[in-house]
Structures are given as structure tokens and as C-alpha cells.
Specification:
319 residues, Farnesyl Diphosphate Synthase, 16 helices
Chain lengths: 319, 319
């Protein structure tokens, strides 16, 4: 991660002088760096062994991710992310659109610095898929007819896609056999789905000071995620109609009220079961490769997410 | 161009089914296709000889350009482009942000299909530079302290960059020697500057029905371009102060009034001189390569722009 820090700081100078400060603002985050972690862990070759290729690939996926966040925060009219003003708030939405574009371009430029075009090909395609997922989500705001399959397709594209490619690149660039790279790919896919469902749950039952971003954003922007979909499914018909009318009118029920109803109906537990299923599929994909160096660390990542989910569940139950 | 049409139509299917219709809307334009023309002309190898590489490169630069238009029209709040609703107007600005991203990504994905990563490297870097130019322009709206050097830097980045890379790729991918590719690069740069100054002039003195886009957009959005910069320089101090106050307050002088004043002060003639200088530099770059097949066609492109400028000047003088 130290090498990645150095790499990301070095990238700032690659932007035109006129936008360097803005690029630095976006790149210098205290973000969780999940995608770089996936690259490093899936390409693990032992303590202290960090190839330049992995650092570069980690930089690419993180920069693509940061670019999508810059654009996401425009859609969501979000002011705060990780306890800091969003780029959209800091520089205005117009500049933020273009700044996100510049970050995308630079990410793909770095991807094209590999000797073969494979990395760039994969990352560009992934980026397109991420955007497609975001478009679907944007167009279907306040649409209460979204099916569970459509929800899964959206989070597959918008989140699991980049998780998947991060794991694949890690495995691939560290010289592992094709079958492990394919297994890492599947692991990343399921972990990504699990993570997004967890993130959607956080938006309802997390604690703002802990998470560092505004809670209830999904509810406020009419994004139908698993917790809300299940809530709509479980409440009595009259209450359901009320929630739908409010959502459609852009006046969702207050966060506290939805939290209380979710608690009454045990929604969190059901969401957690969905997360557990994905985590099981993720770790299952690695079963034939237990002897490989990256696998114990990859399994540990799954455990960490499981731990976070459990902590969230406990907090929600005692709130 | 028939091959390019086929290529662009084929690209629609590469987008996720959920956004295919929107991608098709953006790709199916009656645009001028200047950048593909530059690729084909700079890589000219004789009648009927069109390599797949050139078609693909033409598709890449056009798709990058279309993506920037989608995002530009969001900034400009433009409703109309080439007699059709902009994507921002058709699908909403939020979806248009993401749709532009998907077009960028797909363009870079195609660029990465070349056997070496060089094309992707060049195009990704160019795209970043185009965005930087756009950011500068966006941040400096209504800023009347822009110097001529800064104006040139902005149009170099936002327009000349992609012209330059189109010419370079055309020359390079058709197997010409490095010195011709470098000359084509310089030609593209100066042609791009000339074209953007022409385009900025059109916004003041063109005819809406002829151009197919809303005129006076630069004035309305407070974009300081060469015609307006010269107008501010030439008018008496009191009038200047009035224009500046109006511009800063977001209430620019009416288009008709600015047109009249430009006519009084001979601004168009001065702008045309700047265009001519660039066109001379463009054709000058090709002088050592007159014997090569692409050069006569490239010179012809310069002549065509010169003709358009002359026609605009005549129309403005008789209006």
C-alpha cells in the first residue's frame, strides 16, 4: 500500500498543470482501497514481494473507481464522502463531470502502459459495464417494479465487475495459471455482490459518524436496494401503498421510520442471509486452489466482510 | 465512410442490452465526422484501399469525440445539436453523464484491440488532455481576464489535440515513415486550432438553420472566445464595462447587438486572419512531403476550411 501511495501521488504530476490540484484532491483520499487490496491479495507472492505490475494495476482500478465516485456524487447530489466534501460540491457539478472523465482517461492511459493491450482491454470493458450498471440504476430511480434479478444485474455491473477484474488482474499479472485466474475472477464477482448488498444495508442501519458519508441517501434518491425491496414486500398493503406514493413523489418516509420498520420485520437478518450466500460462493470458488499463496489471504478478506456484517447487525439490533 | 458507418452500427451491439438504445442514439449522428476524415485522409493509400486498422482508429476518435459532445451539452445546457435533441435533453443530464462515460470506455476498449498498446496509450492521453481543456474552459466562464495565450491553450487541448492524434494515427497506421507521421501531427494541430477559431466565429456570425445548433451559446454561457475577446478589446471603455457587467451577471448583451458591434469594428476580419495564419502553418508542415499520396488530400481539407471561412465572412458582411 505504501508503493500504491507513492504511485498515486506520482500520478498527480501526469495531469495538466491547470487541473493538477483538482486531480490531487480526488486522488488523495482516505478511502478503503478495496480494489487495490484485491489486486495485491490475489497476486500475493509472499511478504515484501510487490511487483511494479501489481502496483500499476492497483492504481488503475482505484483510479477508475475514484472516477466513478466523482460522477456518482453528482447524480446523488451528495455533499460528503468519507468526511470530506465531494468533488461535485468542491468544484461544482460541471467541472466534476470533466474531472471524472480526466481520471478515467488517465486510468486507461496507465492501463495501456503494460506491454500488451490486454489490461487496457479488460479495464476499458469493465469500465463500460460499470457505467451501464450506473445508468440502469439512474434510470430506474423511484421505480418500484424492479425485480430481484434486475437488482442483482445492476450491482453485478456497477460493483462486482470491478471487484472481479481486480482479482483477475492480480492473479494473472503475478503469473498464476489460467485456472486460478478464473477462480479469482469468480471469487471477486461474488465478493463484489456481497459487498454491495452490505453497503446497501449500511445505508439504512449504519452510523453516520462511523461510515463517514450521509446515510439514507438511497432512500432519499429513490434507489431501490435489497433492504427497501424487502421492506416493500413485507409491510401490509396499505403501508406499502403509502411508502410507494411517498417514494414516487420524491418524499420518502423518514430514515428513522424505515429503520424501525426494518427492525420490526427482521429485514436486516434476511439481507445478511443473502450476503452470506454470496460469501459462501466466493470462498467456494477458491476451494480447488487452497495450496496457492494468495488463497488464505483472499479467504481472510471474505472473513473480514463477514465480521463487518456481524458488527453492523449487532449495532442495528441494540440501537 | 461506408466502412465507418458499418463499424459504428456494429458497435451498438457491444453495449449492454439495457443501454443499447441510448448508445445507438448517440452514435447514429449526421455529424461532420471531421476526425475520422482526418484519419482516412492522413492514411490515404489510394482509391478503394481502406484498411481495417484505419476504420477502427476512425471509429475510436469519433466515439471519443461523441462522448465529449454528450458531456459538453450537459455543461452548456444545450437542447439542440445538429437539429436533434441532445442526449442530455433526451435522457436527462444524470444519465447523459454516465452514457458519455460508457462511450469513452468503449472507445478505449476498441483502441485496446490493436495488437500493441500504442493506440490506446495515445488516445487515452489525448482524451485526458481534451477533458483538461474543457475543465479550464468551464472554470473560467465569465472570466474576462483570460489572455490570448490561455485561450489558445484551451482550444489546443479541447480541439486541436484530437485533430492532431487523428492525423498522427492515420499516417502511422498506414505504415508511413516517422517523419511524415510527425508532420501529419503538426498539420492536425494547426488545422484543429484553425477549426476551433472558425467554430467560435460561427457562434457569433453563423446562421442557425445552416449550422443546426443554437447560436450565441458561447455568449450566453459566458465562454470567452476570440471574437468576444477582440470585441472587448476594441470597444470604448464605457461600453466594455457594460458588456463585462452583463456577462458576469449572467445577462450577456443580446446576440444581435454583439453581431452589429463586431461588424462595426471589423472583428470578423481579424478573426479570419488568425484562422489563415493557422492554416498556413498547417499546410507548411506538409511541404517536405508533397510527394506522398495523403498530402494533396490533406491540403484540400485545409482549402475546404478556408472556403467555409470565406463563405461565412461573405454571409456576415451582407447580413
Amino acid at each position: 500500500m505504501v508503493a500504491l501511495d507513492r504511485f498515486m501521488r506520482g500520478q498527480v504530476d501526469r495531469f495538466e498543470p491547470e487541473i493538477r490540484e483538482m486531480a490531487a484532491y480526488c486522488l488523495d483520499t482516505t478511502g478503503k482501497r478495496l480494489r487495490p487490496t484485491l489486486v495485491f491479495v490475489s497476486g500475493w507472492q509472499g511478504d515484501g514481494v510487490v511487483s511494479d505490475d501489481l502496483v500499476r494495476a492497483a492504481g488503475v482500478v482505484e483510479m477508475v473507481h475514484l472516477a466513478t465516485l466523482v460522477h456518482d456524487d453528482i447524480m446523488d447530489r451528495a455533499d460528503l464522502r468519507r468526511n470530506r466534501r465531494t468533488a461535485s460540491r468542491e468544484f461544482g457539478p460541471d467541472a466534476a463531470v470533466l474531472l471524472g472523465d480526466a481520471l478515467f482517461s488517465q486510468a486507461l492511459h496507465i492501463a495501456a502502459l503494460f506491454p500488451t493491450p490486454e489490461v487496457c482491454r479488460l479495464v476499458a470493458e469493465s469500465t463500460r459495464r460499470v457505467c451501464s450498471g450506473e445508468i440502469m440504476q439512474t434510470l430506474r430511480r423511484r421505480d418500484i417494479n424492479i425485480s430481484l434479478a434486475e437488482y442483482r444485474r445492476m450491482i453485478d455491473l456497477k460493483t462486482a465487475e470491478l471487484f472481479r477484474v481486480s482479482c483477475f488482474l492480480g492473479a494473472r499479472l503475478s503469473g498464476h495459471a489460467a485456472d486460478f485466474a478464473a477462480a479469482a475472477d469468480r471469487f471477486g464477482h461474488h465478493l463484489g455482490i456481497a459487498y454491495q448488498i452490505y453497503d446497501d444495508l449500511v445505508d439504512f442501519v449504519g452510523e453516520e459518524k462511523h461510515i463517514g458519508k450521509t446515510l439514507g441517501t438511497d432512500l432519499a434518491t429513490g434507489k431501490l436496494t435489497l433492504p427497501l425491496m424487502l421492506l416493500l414486500e413485507r409491510v401490509p398493503a396499505a403501508e406499502r401503498a403509502g411508502i410507494i406514493t411517498a417514494l414516487r413523489g420524491g418524499q420518502p418516509m423518514p430514515l428513522a421510520a424505515s429503520q424501525q420498520r426494518m427492525k420490526d420485520l427482521g429485514i436486516a437478518q434476511e439481507v445478511v442471509r443473502a450476503i452470506d450466500d454470496e460469501l459462501a460462493a466466493a470462498t467456494g470458488a477458491l476451494a480447488p486452489h487452497r495450496a496457492l499463496a494468495p488463497v488464505p489471504l483472499m479467504l481472510q478478506l471474505g472473513e473480514m466482510l463477514r465480521g463487518q456484517v456481524a458488527a453492523l447487525q449487532t449495532a442495528a439490533a441494540t440501537a
